[in-house]
Amino acid sequence: MNPSTMAISKGKLCPPIYHSVLKIFTVLMLIMALTANRAAAQEARPASGIAVGGAVPDSLLHAELNVLGAGAGTAFKLAGFKGKPFILDFWASWCGSCIKSLPHADSLLKANGQALGIVLVNSSARDRDAEKLARFVDTFLKDHPGFSVPFIAQHELFSRYFKISRLPCYVWVGSDGLIKAVTGYGTLHEENVRRFLAGGQLLMGKEGI
């Protein structure tokens, strides 16, 4: 009996065989881990975010969203845009860049209101206190009379379908209900709105999702 066979028969593996078995075991474990991660990612995809080119789900389009500020308590539905392209402007009360950009969003809506919709969406975990957020919006509106872009109260569907990694974030939804682009700070401007309404390519900044 050769040494390797003797080692195996005694319940021991000689170093060369031991290392080979260890390598095979390690590779198998890596394959299993990658397969599990891939399966988990595929399963979580519908709940973790909508990719550019994807459609805004009917559950969100027809959800009754509560308006903050002047129209507090009024039900609002994205489906009300009825074929009109619109922009979901994700913001937060603690985001200085977001607050600074809000008056500009208002001016864009007033200039293009017949052809474009803009909605202010807050899905920040730090703004979960509904009363505190409502007070913030009330104060902002008092400081900006005539502001026309609707503030929407937090709704779990926004957090489910849009995984926001930086703010502000703009989700551009075409008249066909498909997401045309997701952009970041500095991309909500006249030229991009013109391109968006014409079905053209946006001037891209940092992605927001």
TrEMBL record:
What's the superkingdom here?
A: Bacteria
Q: Where is the Thioredoxin domain?
A: 38-202
Which InterPro entries does this entry report, sorted A to Z?
Answer: Redoxin (IPR013740), Thioredoxin-like_sf (IPR036249), Thioredoxin_domain (IPR013766), Thioredoxin_ResA/DsbE_sf (IPR050553)
| GO molecular function annotation | oxidoreductase activity
Question: What Pfam families does this protein's entry cite?
Answer: Redoxin
User: What is the protein name stated in its UniProt record?
Assistant: TlpA disulfide reductase family protein
Q: Which organism is it from?
A: Pedobacter sp. KACC 23697
